[in-house]
Design a protein that fits this description.
Number of helices: 14
Low-confidence stretches: 1-36
Number of domains: 3
Number of strands: 10
Order of helices and strands: EEEHHHEEHHHHHEEHEHHHHEEH
Radius of gyration: 20 Å
Structural class: alpha+beta
C-alpha cells in the first residue's frame, strides 16, 4: 500500500491560508479525510492549553453562538481575541465541538461523552487516555491539519529537522506551481512542535508548565539536541518516540482500530494487519507503534473490544474481523470502556 501526497496552498477570504492535499492510493478504498482542504492557519500560532477545551465546552453549553461575538467571548473566556480564535480552532480541530444545523456550535458526540462538565468521562483532561484520544482526534480532524497529516503519515526520515521539513514542503509546492508564504508554513510547523514538546526560553529553560499543551505529556516528540542550519543558526532537532507505549490502553487501541476502519472501509468485514500498522491515518502511524507491539495488541483485541473485533493470524492471513457495524452506539461503548 502506497500513498502519493501533493500539496496546493490557497488563500481564503480573510487572508489566512489553507492547504489542499490530494491523496492517491493503489487501492480502491477512500482516504480517511472527508474534506481535502487542509488548514495551516486559525490557531493564531498557539498550541492549545489545559483549560482551553473545558472552557470551550462550557461556553458552547451556555450559548451555541459563544464564538460568534468575539468581544463577548473575550469577556466570557477571560482571554484576548487571538486566543478566542485559537480556542475555537482547537475545540473544532479535536472534534470536541461541531457546527450545529441551527447555526453556531454544539458539542459533538465525542465532546459530550468525554468532556461534558457534569457527565463527561474526563472533563478536565486528568487521564492520559484522554490526551492520547485528543492526539488521535487531531490526526483525524474533519478539516485536516497540514502538519499532522504530513508529519504523521508522510515523513519517513528518522529525525524531524524544521529546516529540512520546510524544504520538503517547498518541493511539493514547486511541483504544483503554487507559491506559499514561508512564514505561514513555518508558524504552522512550529505549532505542531509546541503541541508535543515543552516550550523553552531563549536560555533553554522550560517555561511555566501551564503554558504548554497537555499533549506534551505524551512524550511523542523527543529532543535530539541542536544542529546548525546552512546559515549558521542553531535549530532544534526532534524525533518521534517509536516503540512500546504501554500507557496506551488496549481499549483505546481497539477504539482507534474501529474508528480508523469506520472511516476508510466501513463496508468491509475484515481489514489487514498491514493496513492497521502502516496505512496513513492508521493506529500504527498515528501512535507510532512497531509491528511487534501491534501484533501483541491484536491478540488481545477480542477482550479489549467487547467481542466487536477479533484477530485471525495464519501463514496466509493476518487480518482483523468485526462482528457488528461501527455505529455511534458501538463507538460510544468502546470509548466508555477506555475509562473502565
Amino acid at each position: 500500500m502506497w500513498c502519493r501526497l501533493s500539496f496546493r496552498f490557497l488563500a481564503n477570504g480573510n487572508g489566512s491560508c489553507i492547504v489542499q492535499l490530494s491523496n492517491s492510493y493503489n487501492g480502491d478504498r477512500t482516504s480517511v479525510a472527508t474534506n481535502d482542504t487542509y488548514a495551516i492557519a486559525g490557531h493564531e500560532t498557539f498550541a492549545f492549553r489545559f483549560a482551553w477545551l473545558p472552557k470551550a465546552v462550557e461556553a458552547v453549553l451556555k450559548s451555541p453562538h459563544a464564538f460568534s461575538d468575539e468581544t463577548q467571548a473575550m469577556i466570557d473566556l477571560g482571554v484576548g481575541k487571538n486566543m478566542v480564535r485559537s480556542i475555537r480552532f482547537w475545540a473544532s480541530g479535536t472534534g470536541v465541538i461541531e457546527l450545529s444545523d441551527s447555526g453556531g456550535f454544539k458539542l459533538s458526540d465525542f465532546g459530550e461523552q468525554v468532556l461534558h462538565p457534569d457527565t463527561g468521562l474526563d472533563p478536565f483532561l486528568e487521564d492520559d487516555q484522554t490526551l492520547w484520544l485528543l492526539h488521535w482526534q487531531l490526526a483525524h480532524a474533519r478539516r485536516p491539519l497540514f502538519a499532522w497529516d504530513f508529519l504523521l503519515n508522510a515523513w519517513h526520515e528518522p529525525e524531524l529537522i524544521p529546516s529540512s521539513i520546510m524544504v520538503a514542503a517547498a518541493r511539493h509546492l514547486e511541483k504544483s506551481g503554487v507559491r506559499a508564504s514561508d512564514s505561514s508554513l513555518r508558524g504552522h510547523l512550529s505549532v505542531f512542535f509546541h503541541t508535543y514538546h515543552p516550550a523553552r526560553s531563549k536560555r533553554g529553560d522550560i517555561l511555566e508548565a501551564g503554558l504548554d499543551c497537555p499533549l506534551v505529556q505524551l512524550d511523542l516528540l523527543e529532543s535530539r539536541g541542536q544542529r546548525n542550519t546552512i546559515k549558521g543558526r542553531a535549530e532544534n532537532v526532534y524525533a518521534f518516540r517509536r516503540g512500546k507505549k504501554p500507557e496506551i490502553g488496549d481499549p483505546l487501541f481497539s477504539y482507534a482500530v474501529c474508528d480508523f476502519w469506520r472511516q476508510v472501509a466501513p463496508s468491509e468485514v475484515a481489514i489487514s494487519f498491514r493496513e492497521i500498522a502502516t496505512r496513513p491515518y492508521s493506529p500504527g502511524q498515528v501512535f507510532m507503534l512497531e509491528d511487534e507491539e501491534i501484533r501483541e495488541r491484536l491478540d488481545r483485541l477480542d477482550k479489549a473490544s467487547n467481542g466487536v473485533l477479533s484477530y485471525v493470524e495464519s501463514s496466509l492471513v493476518q487480518s482483523v474481523h468485526r462482528s457488528s457495524d461501527f455505529n455511534d452506539k458501538t463507538l460510544r461503548a468502546l470509548r466508555k470502556k477506555i475509562y473502565s
